[in-house]
Design brief:
This protein is an alpha+beta fold. About 40% of the residues lie in helices and about 20% in strands. It folds into four domains: about 15-40 and about 90-160 and about 330-345, 2-Layer Sandwich (BirA Bifunctional Protein, domain 2); about 45-85, no CATH class; about 170-305, 2-Layer Sandwich (BirA Bifunctional Protein, domain 2), CATH 3.30.930; about 365-460, Rossmann fold, CATH 3.40.50.800. The strands form four sheets. The protein has an eight-stranded mixed beta sheet. Strands 15-14-16-17-18 form a five-stranded mixed beta sheet. Helix 1 (about 15-35) runs antiparallel to helix 5 and helix 6 (about 175-185) packs antiparallel against helix 12. It starts with 14 loop residues before the first helix and ends with a helix.
Length: about 450
């Protein structure tokens, strides 16, 4: 006998937890579509040369290659023979390939959402997954894309997390141009060094000021203590309201070109976020946010739960200037944001912010005698036609056993159709949530149960 077990780094849920996860997916999809984003799916496999063109190195060590009898190609890094196909490790590279390949067929600005699994050879640890869902939205322009689109994404994310109802949250914003301008003024003008400094600054909320200070003054950076003190004071800037955010931007003064551009873009994004109806308690400036990926060039975002900062960012993204430069000569700037839903769901379960859902089955029709099965099946068909998810007990058993099954399976309503009910044209309903019982005319059963479900939904 082989012991049944899942491989490490995957999330496998019991049905009622899977329902809770699926409902989160449905909520995210619904809000993405409300904001005018169109669905896209790409294959789980991409050609290796396409997938690794922009990355290689560390990324290649985390990629799952697809073993097959097909041909192999040599790695650009070390000449090794690698499989022709690999599993996607994010949704951004497939998006770049997709837009470049279908450029002539798409309408720009192209607004897409994508909700699919991705695969990474992550080191095994709690909450880190090798297979996980990402939920992305992006707006891609051709040749140019107004910064105004940068405000739409936070508005969409606000709608998503408001409906998910997982607690107070803040969408934190910054701008890479603003950061670059500030660092240039501090003498950190070299592009490579600036990228490394930004990467360390991005760790401020996770690792703390002492870690960042020690790193930037240490070997490899060698910045002066005064320069690092100025940098830390700057990146610790946070706003407390819309007016405070505008005041903090104004206090930066004129500065150099990069700083001025970053300030102007952030100011416009903030004003449009407010115009889109996002409450000012749900967005703020945070000058420490840089995002680790080097291709971000303007606005950057991170979303955190106010009462659970230890969870870190639950949604992040930003502006990039050229999505698909490796696949097309066209310039395709864009802005995108992503929710890593599998890790988020695990974090919310750990924090007890989501609970096991009720069953998607709303009604169980019992059966006490084979002779009544045709009537029970007919009643189930009536309930399904009336919009209710209905299961029928197909083999007769003691009523207590059937009630116990419904309770364990999370089914709210149990309908009993015995000889007496059939004779009277009624049905007896047991509401396991409210622990009460009532009799209703068979013709009114579906409507009555729909009303009960709607009242419960409104009370939530």
């Amino acid at each position: 006998m082989i012991k049944p077990r899942t491989p490490p780094g995957v999330m496998e849920l019991l049905p009622r937890d899977q329902i809770a996860f699926q409902r989160m997916l449905d909520t995210i999809r619904r809000n993405f579509e409300r904001f005018g984003f169109l669905p896209v799916e790409t294959p789980v496999m991409e050609l290796t040369e396409v997938l690794l063109t922009k990355s290689g190195g560390e990324t290649e060590r985390q990629v799952y290659f697809v073993e097959s009898t097909g041909s192999r190609e040599k790695s650009a890094q070390d000449g090794r023979a690698v499989p022709e196909l690999a599993l996607r490790f994010d949704l951004t590279v497939p998006l770049a390939r997709y837009v470049a390949e279908h450029e002539a067929e798409l309408a720009f600005p192209f607004r897409r959402y994508q909700m699919q699994r991705v695969y990474r050879g992550e080191r095994q640890q709690r909450g880190r997954y090798r297979e996980f869902y990402q939920c992305d939205i992006d707006v891609i322009g051709k040749d140019s894309l107004s910064v105004r689109y940068d405000a739409e994404l936070p508005a969409c994310i606000h709608a998503v997390f408001s409906e998910l109802d997982i607690g107070a949250f803040t969408i934190q914003l910054n701008n890479r141009k603003l950061l670059r301008g500030f660092f240039e003024a501090q003498g950190v003008a070299d592009g490579e060094l600036q990228a490394l400094v930004l990467r360390e600054v991005d760790k401020l909320d996770k690792r703390g000021a002492d870690y960042v200070r020690e790193t930037l003054t240490g070997e490899g950076f060698g910045l002066s203590a005064q320069a690092v003190a100025t940098i830390l004071a700057f990146v610790e800037t946070r706003s407390t309201s819309h007016a405070d955010a505008l005041a903090k931007l104004a206090a930066l003064g004129e500065g150099n070109d990069s700083l001025r551009q970053g300030v102007a873009e952030l100011r416009e994004v903030l004003e449009l976020i407010r115009a889109l109806g996002v409450p000012e308690t749900n967005y703020a400036l945070n000058f420490s946010i840089a995002r680790g990926l080097d291709y971000y060039t303007g606005t950057v975002y991170e979303t955190t739960l106010d009462d659970y900062p230890q969870l870190g960012s639950i949604c992040s993204g930003g502006r990039y200037e050229d999505l698909a430069s490796h696949y097309t000569k066209s310039k395709l700037p864009g802005v995108g944001i992503s929710i890593g839903l599998t890790r988020l769901f695990w974090q919310l379960q750990e924090a007890r912010l989501v609970s096991t859902a009720d069953s998607s089955v709303q009604v169980l029709v019992t059966q006490m005698d084979d002779a009544q099965l045709p009537q029970c099946l007919a009643l189930a068909s009536e309930l399904r036609a009336g919009g209710l998810n209905t299961e029928v007990v197909m083999e007769p058993s003691k009523l207590g056993k059937q009630f116990k099954y419904a309770d364990r399976a999370g089914i709210r309503f149990v309908v009993v159709l015995g000889e007496n009910e059939i004779a009277k044209g009624t049905a007896t309903v047991k509401d396991l949530r409210r622990e009460d019982q009532f009799e209703v005319a068979r013709g009114e059963l579906a409507r009555t149960l729909r009303v009960e479900l709607e009242q419960s939904r409104v009370m939530k």
